[in-house]
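Key idea: predict the complex, not the pieces.
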Amino acid sequence: MRNPINLKHKAQSIDEHWSPKVVAAVDDNFVKVAKVKGEFTWHEHEEDEFFMVLDGTLKIEMEAETVTLKQGEVYVVPKGVRHKPSSSDECLIMLFEKQSTLHTGKTKSALTKDIKDQLSSS
Amino acid sequence: MRNPINLKHKAQSIDEHWSPKVVAAVDDNFVKVAKVKGEFTWHEHEEDEFFMVLDGTLKIEMEAETVTLKQGEVYVVPKGVRHKPSSSDECLIMLFEKQSTLHTGKTKSALTKDIKDQLSSS
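Result:
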Protein backbone atom coordinates (compact mmCIF):
# COMPACT_ATOMS: atom_id res chain seq x y z
CA MET A 1 0.00 0.00 0.00
CA ARG A 2 1.98 2.94 -1.27
CA ASN A 3 -0.64 5.67 -1.12
CA PRO A 4 -3.83 6.40 0.81
CA ILE A 5 -6.88 4.68 -0.68
CA ASN A 6 -10.41 6.09 -0.76
CA LEU A 7 -12.53 3.11 0.27
CA LYS A 8 -15.79 4.32 -1.25
CA HIS A 9 -14.19 4.94 -4.64
CA LYS A 10 -12.49 1.53 -4.46
CA ALA A 11 -15.77 -0.25 -3.66
CA GLN A 12 -17.62 1.71 -6.35
CA SER A 13 -15.14 0.47 -8.96
CA ILE A 14 -15.97 -3.22 -8.41
CA ASP A 15 -17.96 -4.73 -11.28
CA GLU A 16 -19.70 -7.58 -9.49
CA HIS A 17 -21.94 -7.66 -6.40
CA TRP A 18 -20.84 -9.76 -3.38
CA SER A 19 -17.28 -9.98 -4.70
CA PRO A 20 -15.01 -8.49 -2.00
CA LYS A 21 -11.62 -7.06 -2.94
CA VAL A 22 -8.63 -6.90 -0.62
CA VAL A 23 -7.47 -3.30 -0.05
CA ALA A 24 -4.76 -3.85 2.55
CA ALA A 25 -3.21 -6.34 4.94
CA VAL A 26 -2.97 -5.44 8.64
CA ASP A 27 -0.84 -8.08 10.33
CA ASP A 28 -2.78 -11.34 9.76
CA ASN A 29 -6.00 -9.55 8.77
CA PHE A 30 -7.35 -8.20 5.50
CA VAL A 31 -9.24 -4.96 4.92
CA LYS A 32 -11.69 -5.57 2.08
CA VAL A 33 -14.34 -3.57 0.29
CA ALA A 34 -17.42 -4.88 -1.50
CA LYS A 35 -20.34 -3.64 -3.55
CA VAL A 36 -23.49 -5.54 -2.58
CA LYS A 37 -27.13 -5.71 -3.65
CA GLY A 38 -29.82 -8.29 -2.97
CA GLU A 39 -29.37 -11.25 -0.65
CA PHE A 40 -26.17 -13.09 0.26
CA THR A 41 -26.19 -16.67 1.54
CA TRP A 42 -26.61 -17.76 5.18
CA HIS A 43 -23.16 -18.66 6.53
CA GLU A 44 -20.87 -18.52 9.54
CA HIS A 45 -17.15 -18.05 10.18
CA GLU A 46 -14.72 -19.34 12.77
CA GLU A 47 -13.55 -15.72 13.22
CA ASP A 48 -15.24 -12.41 14.01
CA GLU A 49 -16.29 -10.28 11.03
CA PHE A 50 -16.32 -6.47 11.14
CA PHE A 51 -18.70 -4.58 8.84
CA MET A 52 -18.73 -0.84 8.07
CA VAL A 53 -21.21 0.74 5.68
CA LEU A 54 -19.52 3.27 3.37
CA ASP A 55 -22.68 4.10 1.41
CA GLY A 56 -26.24 2.82 1.50
CA THR A 57 -27.90 0.53 4.04
CA LEU A 58 -26.96 -3.04 4.99
CA LYS A 59 -29.23 -5.51 6.78
CA ILE A 60 -27.59 -8.38 8.67
CA GLU A 61 -30.01 -11.12 9.65
CA MET A 62 -28.87 -13.43 12.44
CA GLU A 63 -30.83 -16.21 14.07
CA ALA A 64 -31.46 -14.23 17.28
CA GLU A 65 -31.80 -10.71 15.86
CA THR A 66 -31.49 -8.49 12.81
CA VAL A 67 -29.41 -5.31 12.68
CA THR A 68 -29.57 -2.55 10.07
CA LEU A 69 -26.45 -0.48 9.42
CA LYS A 70 -26.62 2.95 7.82
CA GLN A 71 -23.73 4.90 6.30
CA GLY A 72 -20.89 5.34 8.81
CA GLU A 73 -22.13 2.60 11.13
CA VAL A 74 -20.17 -0.50 12.13
CA TYR A 75 -21.05 -3.90 13.57
CA VAL A 76 -19.14 -7.06 14.47
CA VAL A 77 -20.74 -10.44 13.77
CA PRO A 78 -19.19 -12.71 16.42
CA LYS A 79 -17.45 -15.94 15.41
CA GLY A 80 -19.83 -18.85 15.02
CA VAL A 81 -22.98 -16.72 14.55
CA ARG A 82 -24.91 -17.63 11.40
CA HIS A 83 -25.75 -14.51 9.41
CA LYS A 84 -27.15 -13.36 6.09
CA PRO A 85 -26.27 -9.89 4.82
CA SER A 86 -28.64 -8.24 2.36
CA SER A 87 -29.39 -4.86 0.82
CA SER A 88 -32.43 -3.95 -1.24
CA ASP A 89 -30.50 -1.13 -2.94
CA GLU A 90 -26.82 -1.08 -3.85
CA CYS A 91 -24.58 -0.67 -0.81
CA LEU A 92 -20.81 -0.21 -0.38
CA ILE A 93 -19.13 -1.84 2.61
CA MET A 94 -15.77 -2.35 4.26
CA LEU A 95 -14.90 -5.67 5.92
CA PHE A 96 -12.16 -6.44 8.37
CA GLU A 97 -11.38 -10.08 9.09
CA LYS A 98 -8.64 -12.68 9.38
CA GLN A 99 -6.80 -13.42 6.14
CA SER A 100 -7.94 -17.03 6.56
CA THR A 101 -11.65 -16.12 6.60
CA LEU A 102 -13.64 -17.23 3.55
CA HIS A 103 -16.47 -14.78 2.87
CA THR A 104 -19.12 -17.49 2.70
CA GLY A 105 -17.59 -19.29 5.71
CA LYS A 106 -18.17 -23.03 5.70
CA THR A 107 -21.02 -22.64 3.20
CA LYS A 108 -19.77 -23.07 -0.34
CA SER A 109 -22.21 -21.57 -2.86
CA ALA A 110 -22.33 -20.05 -6.31
CA LEU A 111 -21.44 -16.77 -4.59
CA THR A 112 -18.20 -18.12 -3.06
CA LYS A 113 -15.09 -16.31 -4.34
CA ASP A 114 -11.61 -17.72 -4.05
CA ILE A 115 -9.22 -15.48 -2.15
CA LYS A 116 -7.15 -15.08 -5.33
CA ASP A 117 -10.18 -13.39 -6.90
CA GLN A 118 -10.33 -11.02 -3.95
CA LEU A 119 -6.84 -9.61 -4.29
CA SER A 120 -7.07 -6.16 -5.78
CA SER A 121 -4.95 -5.37 -8.80
CA SER A 122 -4.10 -1.87 -7.60
CA MET B 1 -21.43 -4.78 20.83
CA ARG B 2 -25.19 -5.01 20.87
CA ASN B 3 -26.10 -2.37 18.31
CA PRO B 4 -24.49 -0.72 15.31
CA ILE B 5 -22.22 2.20 16.26
CA ASN B 6 -21.73 5.39 14.26
CA LEU B 7 -17.97 5.89 14.33
CA LYS B 8 -17.99 9.60 13.60
CA HIS B 9 -20.48 10.32 16.39
CA LYS B 10 -18.46 8.14 18.77
CA ALA B 11 -15.21 9.95 17.94
CA GLN B 12 -16.90 13.34 18.21
CA SER B 13 -18.03 12.52 21.75
CA ILE B 14 -14.47 12.10 23.07
CA ASP B 15 -13.37 14.96 25.33
CA GLU B 16 -9.60 14.76 24.90
CA HIS B 17 -7.37 14.84 21.82
CA TRP B 18 -5.08 11.84 21.12
CA SER B 19 -7.04 9.66 23.54
CA PRO B 20 -8.30 6.67 21.52
CA LYS B 21 -11.38 4.76 22.68
CA VAL B 22 -12.05 1.09 21.95
CA VAL B 23 -15.27 0.62 19.97
CA ALA B 24 -15.15 -3.11 19.32
CA ALA B 25 -12.98 -6.22 19.48
CA VAL B 26 -12.46 -8.26 16.29
CA ASP B 27 -10.70 -11.47 17.26
CA ASP B 28 -7.38 -10.30 18.77
CA ASN B 29 -7.68 -6.78 17.35
CA PHE B 30 -9.35 -3.60 18.57
CA VAL B 31 -11.30 -1.07 16.52
CA LYS B 32 -10.71 2.36 18.08
CA VAL B 33 -11.75 5.92 17.34
CA ALA B 34 -9.91 9.10 18.29
CA LYS B 35 -10.30 12.86 18.06
CA VAL B 36 -6.95 14.44 17.23
CA LYS B 37 -5.53 17.93 16.77
CA GLY B 38 -1.95 19.17 16.71
CA GLU B 39 1.07 16.89 16.78
CA PHE B 40 1.41 13.42 18.27
CA THR B 41 4.77 11.96 19.30
CA TRP B 42 7.19 10.07 17.02
CA HIS B 43 6.80 6.35 17.77
CA GLU B 44 6.73 2.88 16.27
CA HIS B 45 4.84 -0.39 16.90
CA GLU B 46 5.73 -4.04 16.57
CA GLU B 47 2.43 -4.47 14.67
CA ASP B 48 0.82 -2.83 11.62
CA GLU B 49 -1.49 0.12 12.30
CA PHE B 50 -4.51 0.90 10.09
CA PHE B 51 -5.76 4.49 9.90
CA MET B 52 -9.05 5.73 8.39
CA VAL B 53 -10.06 9.39 8.41
CA LEU B 54 -13.72 9.84 9.37
CA ASP B 55 -13.65 13.64 9.21
CA GLY B 56 -10.92 16.19 8.54
CA THR B 57 -7.38 15.64 7.29
CA LEU B 58 -4.58 13.61 8.90
CA LYS B 59 -0.89 13.91 8.09
CA ILE B 60 1.36 10.94 8.86
CA GLU B 61 5.05 11.76 8.75
CA MET B 62 7.41 8.80 8.36
CA GLU B 63 11.17 8.90 7.96
CA ALA B 64 11.02 8.06 4.24
CA GLU B 65 7.83 9.86 3.23
CA THR B 66 4.77 11.78 4.41
CA VAL B 67 1.20 10.84 3.50
CA THR B 68 -1.90 13.01 3.87
CA LEU B 69 -5.26 11.29 4.36
CA LYS B 70 -8.53 13.03 3.60
CA GLN B 71 -12.01 11.97 4.72
CA GLY B 72 -12.77 8.38 3.65
CA GLU B 73 -9.12 7.52 2.97
CA VAL B 74 -7.17 4.73 4.64
CA TYR B 75 -3.48 3.92 5.12
CA VAL B 76 -1.50 1.21 6.90
CA VAL B 77 1.72 2.16 8.70
CA PRO B 78 3.80 -1.03 8.54
CA LYS B 79 5.22 -2.55 11.70
CA GLY B 80 8.53 -1.05 12.72
CA VAL B 81 8.09 2.19 10.76
CA ARG B 82 8.55 5.28 12.92
CA HIS B 83 5.72 7.73 12.36
CA LYS B 84 4.23 10.95 13.71
CA PRO B 85 0.54 11.67 13.06
CA SER B 86 -0.59 15.29 13.13
CA SER B 87 -3.53 17.46 12.14
CA SER B 88 -3.60 21.25 12.05
CA ASP B 89 -7.39 21.23 12.48
CA GLU B 90 -9.47 18.79 14.49
CA CYS B 91 -9.72 15.38 12.80
CA LEU B 92 -11.69 12.21 13.61
CA ILE B 93 -10.05 8.86 12.90
CA MET B 94 -10.61 5.12 13.17
CA LEU B 95 -7.72 2.82 14.10
CA PHE B 96 -7.47 -0.93 13.69
CA GLU B 97 -4.65 -2.73 15.43
CA LYS B 98 -3.71 -5.65 17.66
CA GLN B 99 -5.16 -5.52 21.16
CA SER B 100 -1.57 -5.61 22.43
CA THR B 101 -0.57 -2.44 20.53
CA LEU B 102 0.13 0.60 22.69
CA HIS B 103 -0.78 3.79 20.81
CA THR B 104 2.58 5.43 21.47
CA GLY B 105 4.43 2.18 20.76
CA LYS B 106 7.71 1.83 22.62
CA THR B 107 7.79 5.58 23.23
CA LYS B 108 6.26 6.44 26.58
CA SER B 109 5.28 10.10 26.76
CA ALA B 110 2.85 12.45 28.45
CA LEU B 111 0.42 11.46 25.67
CA THR B 112 0.56 7.73 26.46
CA LYS B 113 -2.81 6.32 27.57
CA ASP B 114 -3.19 3.05 29.42
CA ILE B 115 -5.39 0.55 27.61
CA LYS B 116 -7.86 0.73 30.52
CA ASP B 117 -8.39 4.40 29.67
CA GLN B 118 -9.15 3.42 26.09
CA LEU B 119 -12.02 1.10 26.85
CA SER B 120 -15.26 2.84 25.99
CA SER B 121 -17.95 3.01 28.62
CA SER B 122 -20.78 2.41 26.13
